[in-house]
Structures are given as structure tokens and as C-alpha cells.
Amino acid sequence: MGSVRSSIVTPKRADDDADFSLFKQWRAPIATNNNNNHTGKVMTTTAITTPLHLRHEESQIVPPLHQLHNGSHRPFTLPHKKGEEAQNCVKFETHRSNYLVELIEGILPKEIINGSKILVKITEPSHPNIIYVNFSTAVRAYQAQEFMTYWNEYTPTSNRIKSTLIKKSLDPLYSINSVQIDSFPEYPIPRSITVISNEEQAKKTNELLLYGLRPADINFANNIQLGITYEWHHKEVNSDEPNFYVVTVCNHDHCVVYNLNELKKVPQQLIDILESKSIGKVGYNHRMETLKFEKQYGIKLNNFEDLSKTPIVMRSKPKTIRAITGLFLRQKLGRNDINRYATPQSLMSEKRIHHYAQQTDCIRSLFYVLESDKVDFKLQYEEGDHIDYIEDD
């Protein structure tokens, strides 16, 4: 992310969260007159703001915006630097008020807002009044989103403040490094691997992957989930056009590697599986590759889940298949980087075939672990961070 050139930024799009300037920073209260909790209602206040032309880059203390109804004062500092990234960020917007900063201060409990930073304030006539707020932790960002949702339930529609949790800005819940990954045992190569290179061999597809059932006879009650990967290389040395040369599909017992360069097409038995809406398929980071694969072979992949987009993976760092395997299976995938300019023959060596099967089987195993370990974005409250919602009498 690059730094911006001025203290106030107008993004090209209202939902642009790529780069910000620090507008205001909340600190812990200077004094607290009482211990009253925040409610879902805002008291009318008179805002004291610093004109934009008087602001400068040096950090300084300015008078508090207002006296909050919990008796706390919140001075803020101007930034030491111009560039600021979204981290544990929530976007707030309203079409109704020019005092969005003051409203947020009045609505959110001090336990949530302390240590937060306002990044952008937009007052362009063509946009609603928008600000982005970095909270001190991912938990507090989630709490702010939940609290604002609760507050809106008791507020007239015309006065509501829309809040959006910027999920990709949240701190990771899980992280791992290469040293830790290398300390794990290697994920085992599947015992049963079948390479299919001609139409006669392709007739065994249903027997190997569907336990003898036909795709048309399978329904959701059968609960069949298959791991799937495909690999490609450049058609020509001077061309970026991909050629998908192998598809690997695994169930619990078998991995089947389809050599598409030898087959010259995707076998109909495999097409029936890929296009079936009753047979689940899981892959990893396949969104763009899926579109290209579908275009090359005229196939529509149905009932497919990309594990790289599941919430628990989105909260992990790094997000590579090797890192996720280390985090959740406590095993490592062997490194076997593919030369996209290599000849098809070298891409179908025994070592490569073992790697295709190993990775695809691993993805299928990850599916069951991630399904049982769903976190969505309902984060666990940290100790002492729980907020009780209390209405006024």
C-alpha cells in the first residue's frame, strides 16, 4: 500500500479500503465521572471541530469533541504520518448527518472505542458521509459492528448508520511460519492412485470415485465430497494461454489422475461428476483457474467449494495451501513447484503424479477439519471485552 499525499483522502469508490489517512485517534478517557454504561441512544450535543485548513501533520492535542453521556472526555491526536492502512477496520456511513464522528463516539461503548483511529472522512455531496475506523483488536471491530447493528434495531430507518466489517483487514486468528511447517511430518501420499490416459480406463471412473454409483443416481443424502485439483502449463513458450493437462479427483479411498494431454478431452464420465449438483467438490484457490478450465473444455463445475475463501482460512496467515495444512492438519505438503513452460511429458512423471494425488487428498481432508472448526466471523470475546447492552428506562 502506498502512502497518500494529503491529510484528507477522497477514494475513487466509496467502498475503497485500500489506503487511508489518519483523521483522528481516540485515546483512553482523561477522567470518568461515573461508571454508567452506554445505551443504544445518542444524546444531542454540540460538536467542536478543528477546521480542515488549520490541521497539519504534526501531532497535537485539540479540545474534545464533546462531553459523552458516560462522562468521559476523548481528546485526539493528528497523525505523525500521512499513510495509514486498514487494520481491524469497520466502515460507517450515513446519508443523514454531517456529525458521523460525534454520533459514533456517542453510540459505541468506551470499552470498544478506546485506542481506535478514524482513517477517512468523506463529505462529498455525491457520497454518504463515510468514515473508516481502525479498532485496537479484531474482537473490538467485530463488537463495534454488532453493537451498531443492535443500535439500528431501535433507531428509525432514516437515522440508521450503516456499518460494514472489513473482514480482510482483521488480524489473523491463526498464524504459522516456515520453520514450524517444516517441523511437521509430511502428509502421506495416497495408497491408491490410478492414472487414466485413455477412454477405456476412463470407464472405471464411477467404480473408483463413486463406489459404483452413477452420478444421476446420487443425491445429497449420499453426502459425497470429492477433492479436486487441476494443473496447467503454457501452450506456447511465447503465449500466456493456459492448457490444462491434468485433473486429479480423490475420494476417501482412491485418487484418480486424468492425463488430459493423452485423453485429448475430458472424459464424459468425469464431466458427469464435475457438472453434478449432487456431488460435492472441494478445491483450494481455484477461482480463476476454474473459469479458464471451464472455458477450455466447455464444462460447468457445479457444487464446488473453494476452501481458500472459508472464514477460518481468511483469518489465517499465511493463506497458502501448505500453511493451512500445517495449521489445521499439523502436517506439511512437499514442495513441488511446477514449471509452467515445461513439456507435458515431464509434468507427468511419477513424482509429479504423487504430488497431484497428495495435494488433492490433503484438500479433501482439510474440508472436514475446516467444516468442523467453523468460526465464521463471530469471534470469541476476549476476557473483559464483553459488552452488556442496556436500554434506557
What is the CATH-assigned architecture of the largest domain?
A: 2-Layer Sandwich
Main β-sheet description: 6 strands, mixed
* Structural domain tally: 2
Taking all residues together, what is the mean pLDDT?
A: 75
Radius of gyration, whole Å: 27 Å
Secondary-structure map:
Blueprint: E1 24-25, E2 89-94, H1 100-107, H2 110-113, E3 117-122, E4 129-134, H3 138-153, E5 162-165, E6 174-175, H4 178-182, E7 193-196, H5 199-202, H6 205-209, E8 225-234, E9 242-250, E10 255-259, H7 260-263, H8 268-275, E11 280-283, H9 287-297, E12 304-306, H10 311-314, E13 316-317, H11 321-329, H12 350-372
Parallel strand pairs: 6-13, 7-10, 8-11, 11-12
Antiparallel strand pairs: 1-3, 2-4, 2-5, 3-4, 8-9, 9-10
Helix pairs in contact: 11-12
Word description of this protein:
This protein has 393 residues and is of the alpha/beta class. It folds into 2 domains: 24-169, no CATH class; 178-372, Ribonuclease H-like superfamily/Ribonuclease H (Nucleotidyltransferase, domain 5, 2-Layer Sandwich). 26% of the residues lie in helices and 16% in strands. It is built from 12 helices and 13 strands. Strands 7-10-9-8-11-12 form a 6-stranded mixed β-sheet. A 5-stranded antiparallel β-sheet has the order 1-3-4-2-5, with helices on one face. Strands 6-13 form a two-stranded parallel ribbon. A hairpin with a 7-residue loop joins strand 8 (225-234) and strand 9 (242-250). The longest helix has 23 residues, at 350-372.
